[in-house]
Amino acid sequence: MPDPNPSPIESRPGAGAFASTQWSVILRAGEGSSPDAGEALEALCRTYWPPLYAYVRRRGHAVHEAQDLVQEFLSRLLGQGGLHGVDREKGRFRSFLLASMNHFLTNEWHRGQRQKRGGGRIHLSLDQALEEGVADVEPVTQFTPEKAFERRWAETVLRSALERLRSEWGERYQARHFDDLKGFLLEPRGAVPLAEVASRLGITEPALKSIVHRLRKRYGELFRQEVARTVGDPAEVEEEIRQLLAALSE
Amino acid sequence: MNRCPKCALVLSSASSLEGLCPRCLLLGTLADPGEEGQSGPGGELEVAAVEAALGIPLPGIEDFGDFRDLRPLARGGMGIVYRARQVSLNRQVALKMIRSGRLAHETDLRRFRSEAEAAALLDHPNIVPIYEVGDHHGMPYFSMKLIEGGSLASHLPRLRSDLRAGVGLLMRVARAIHYAHERGVLHRDLKPGNILIDAQGEPHVTDFGLAKLATQETQVTLSAVILGTPAYMSPE
Ligand SMILES: Nc1ncnc2c1ncn2[C@@H]1O[C@H](COP(=O)(O)OP(=O)(O)O)[C@@H](O)[C@H]1O
Ligand SMILES: [Mg+2]
Ligand SMILES: [Zn+2]
Fold it and tell me: How far apart, in whole angstroms, are the C-alpha atoms of residue A161 and residue A122?
């Protein structure tokens, strides 16, 4: 049983401000115990559907069918009791979702239950997301469904951390500067000319370096927090990061 | 097909990562975040400059020892000045803190202490009086009289067109500086930002952060200090 109580992660120094692991959100929603749980889970599904969508597409389903399937899958996941017959003892949320989706695709769907679709508590606007290009699946067509899923997953976690960094920056600093600075998060360093950005921001190079240092450090922390939310045990974070990196290697 | 120029990873045409390559981004989280720019004395100054340049608002502080409702008034090179309410005496004061607080460099700390000491030696109507010097949970601070009219910098346009007022003001600053000299305190950083104007238009010299006790130091004459500053010269 994955520990629904996330305190070991929360109390870790630097793990800071996250309320719960994805696991605890899932479990709480399944129990219907918290009024916020539905909302939290919905947010979680909004975050994590692109990898699921990429996976379903690579399994050979057409665009609209894949959208429907993901929608239905997530609705079930959010429903009372969630999905039955899935091994919840798997530590990683990523593995859990993939296994659940597999289970869903091979069993539920083929039992012809698609007519029940749409009655879920959430309505994800997949069309809109597709328009925004988030679910753009073409570049991953060369991969197996699992690889497509994992790649999208890695991007999703990176994006969550980036969004948090952007909003933290925006709270204290002028948001428009973030776009000038985010390139410095990338490795290898030195690709973005310090002098150019410094002069655009009207600050000195040493000043910019010190800002970049703080940004990189903070992004690393936020990324680890996001990863931590998806694993069952804080000790798994570094290993999970290695796997995400592997997913991003061709 | 769109590839990352650095690692050749195939990128989504409409990336979910604001155009950043996910692989290079992830590698960035594994790398050391890099040197903190210039460290040593002055490093914090740079951060201050950055924050000022970026227009970063300073957060207020609710509770600080005997003080409540600290609201940032200004950020200088080394310090942050707050307006605050002193609970025990129920009065408004200005509170100056060293901006890097507990992480301050030793030289900044020394300068901060000597600023308070120099100012505390002086008792003159045109010099901002220091009330007390303290340390709250490792954060050094001193409180002083709150002067609410802004610094001379913001009054210069008005004074340029009112020479008489400008000259009168300079005379009082000159007397204050002369007084400090007599007590062996050289300000050494006299400029509009360090002269505060109160509600009656009276000037008050502040920021003795660079002050030296005039013993063996080169004696800078009062006129050189005052008249050598272009902003103080008459339009002719
Ligand atoms: N006693 C005070 N009352 C009101 N404002 C003050 C007071 N002292 C300083 N300030 C404000 O803070 C600014 C910076 O203060 P200053 O002592 O010159 O700091 P720094 O050493 O960082 O230059 C001043 O220009 C002024 O705007
Ligand atoms: Mg000053
Ligand atoms: Zn790359």
Answer: 24
Measure the N-to-C terminal CA separation of chain A; round to a whole number of Å.
34
Residue with CA at minimum distance from ligand 1 atom 5: B147
Q: From chain B, pick out residues whose CB is under 8 angstroms from the CB of A243.
A: none
Distance CA B185, CA B208 (A): 9
Using the structure block, give the residue that is written with the tokens 């929360």: A10
Interface touch B21/A186, C-beta < 8 Å? yes
**Would you tell me how many other CB atoms lie within 10 Å of the CB of residue B10?**
17
**CB-neighbour burial class of residue B232 (10 A; exposed 0-12, middle 13-18, buried 19+):** buried
Size of interface A-B (CB pairs under 8 A): 150
CB B22 within 8 A of CB A154: yes
CATH assignment of B10-145, given 1.20.1290.10, 2.60.40.10, 1.10.3720.10, 3.30.200.20?
3.30.200.20
Please give the Cα distance from A51 to B28 (Å, whole number). 22
Where does B152-222 sit in CATH, by number?
Answer: 1.10.510.10
Q: Which residues does chain B have with pLDDT short of 50?
A: 14, 37-46, 216-236
Cα B143 from Cα B81, distance rounded (Å): 9
What's the one-letter identity of residue B206? T
Judge whether B146 is closer than 8 Å to chain A, CB to CB: no
* The overall pTM is greater than 0.90: no
- Ligand 2 centroid from CA B153, angstroms: 11
**Which atom of ligand 1 is least distant from the CA of B153?**
25
pLDDT of res. B67: 97
Query: Nearest CB to A159: which of B14, B17, B29?
Result: B17
Which of B15, B20, B29 has the CB atom closest to A182's CB atom?
A: B20
DSSP B129-178: PEEEEEEETTEEEEEEE--TT-BHHHHHHHHHT-HHHHHHHHHHHHHHHH
**Is residue B66 annotated as a catalytic residue, yes or no?**
no
ipTM over 0.85: no
Could you report the per-residue pLDDT of B116-154, keeping only the tens digit for each? 999 999 999 999 999 999 988 878 899 999 999 888 888
What ranges do the domains of chain B cover?
10-145, 152-222
| Count of residues in chain A | 250
Q: For residue A162, which residues of chain B lie inside 8 Å, CB to CB?
A: 17-18, 20, 25
| pLDDT in the model for residue A3 | 36
- Can you give the length of chain B in residues? 236
Q: Which helix (H) or strand (E) holds A155?
A: helix A145-172
SS3 A37: helix
User: What is the three-class DSSP state of A211?
Assistant: helix
